[in-house]
Amino acid sequence: MSAIGQIIGGETSKIFIRERSGSRIELGDLLVAEEDDGNYSILQVKDLVYHSQVPQVMRELASGIQLENRGSQVEFLDEELRNYIIAEAKTILQIRNGKPQLPKRLPKFFTHVRRIEDDDLKFLKKEIEDPLYLGNVRSGSKELKTKIHVNAREAIPHHILIPATTGRGKSNLVKVMLWELMDIENIGMLVLDPHDEYYGRNEKGLKDHPNQEKLRYYTPEISKVEGEAISLNINLRSIRPEHFDGIVEFTSAQKDAIKLYHNKFEENWIQNIIRGEKVENQEGTKEKVSPSTLSVLQRKFDNILGIYEEEGRLESRGGVFTTDAGDSTIKDIIKSLEDGEIVIIDTSRLMGEAELLVGSIIVGALFNKYQKYKAEGKLEEKPIIGIVIEEAPRVLGKEVIERQGHNIYSTIAREGRKFNIGLVAITQLVTLIPRTILANMNTKIILGNEMSQERSEIIASASQDLSDDNRAIASLDRGEAIVTSIFTKFAVPIKIPLFEEHVKDKISETKEKPPLLSPEDL
Ligand SMILES: Nc1ncnc2c1ncn2[C@@H]1O[C@H](COP(=O)(O)OP(=O)(O)OP(=O)(O)O)[C@@H](O)[C@H]1O
Questions:
Q1: What is the DSSP-derived secondary structure letter of residue 245?
Q2: pLDDT tens across 138-184, in order?
Q3: Which of 88, 239, 283, 513 ranks highest by number of CB atoms within 10 Å?
Q4: CA distances, 288 to each of 221, 252, 284 (Å)
Q5: By residue range, what is the domain housing residue 401?
Q6: Could you tell me if 88 and 153 lie in one domain?
Q7: Which of 141, 172, 426 to mutate to test the pocket of ligand 1 (most atoms within 8 A of CB)?
């Protein structure tokens, strides 16, 4: 492939390339500088600057004359020789004997550079186990054929963070990832889906995946769904006081009251609070819980769970939390996850806190089980578990944790890896999440972000040095991302496929598969 520029100087962190005129090098382009021995460096363009050898005063004079329309043909000097573009690039990788290495030396002076080709990325094609496809390598805004995978069994327990502002393609990316995970065995995924967008009730979604045995879809609106949905009913008896930890704020008087009701009524504690049953003290006379505390608790449970009392009966608004069904829902979900299935919970009809509570009940129970498995030495036989959580600062935010203490999600972020449980956390605002948690998220799939403070935080917590990528992150288009991970040698620019396109290919691929034996063989 032809040279599009030549190295004319620089230092380890910044190489200057003089662009061959008309080559149209773009920001983010990946370029290759070859050496005589077959080794080569991969460079990424970080900045572009005009360079002119014509003195400033002459340039001003020439443009002035042109502006005044007096001599638009004025050419003081040979344009191409005197004015050119310098691409400032960074060496991101050096390939020695086919193996990628972090750059330790400068490419040779005056080496010609060319655009990258798929062949230059052969080292990425080595087989990895349980490959989770994220997208294709991207050079600037041009997509290559080389696919980027991470090892799902490694990446998920080490947590994945997806930071992006709205509309940059977060949901699309998660849909693509879940679709891919449908083909990987021994990974259970719990997806709390507040926008009911992953199953694909009315459009393409996971329901269209050929491997349907791996999918469980829980929704309160089962009658409106074609296909195999399961009713999302959760019995109040499944809820324990600690499930509210760090999710719902209670005063100390309310916490005391909850403890009392739980001690006295055990699994029926919420029902009895809602019914306003009296709890007596040891003398059997006075109420221990003040009527005002009780009524605040009743109002909270009404708001969060949609449970209230009417004419002596407990009623359920929304029908998710009930007293007369859903005894086995949580157990069934946990079993599915332990069987390596993908469980989508349509929480679109629930209040934010109720959604987190549902997750808290499931994840809390699962975490306890996995702790036990580890103690018994059985953890490695169990599937990896991933939990997809949107608007992560609701549970991982500094303020929330400081105010309400740790919740099960922040516990997973800190300790889940030891028990093979990880988060796939999605957020628009990384700055709200403590650095310690961000540093624990070892794979970040960075989508476009126009907020400079957010970009700084993302860059500061990345697994690779992204200090030159501020502008690149700001200018990422929909579906364009940078993957930075402890599992990749360099921060890989990718283009995520549009889900509908990706699915179309996959569905037709499976349909077009030739029969194992031809008619003649038979
Ligand atoms: N990889 C992609 N390639 C091309 N277009 C894309 C890609 N990802 C998303 N888009 C387009 O961008 C639009 C927004 O995508 P998506 O809903 O995934 O963004 P989002 O970040 O989740 O937005 P929101 O925060 O509003 O939920 C989609 O309608 C889709 O058409």
A1: T
A2: 999 999 999 999 999 999 999 999 998 999 999 999 999 999 999 99
A3: 239
A4: 40, 14, 10
A5: 131-204+376-512
A6: no
A7: 172
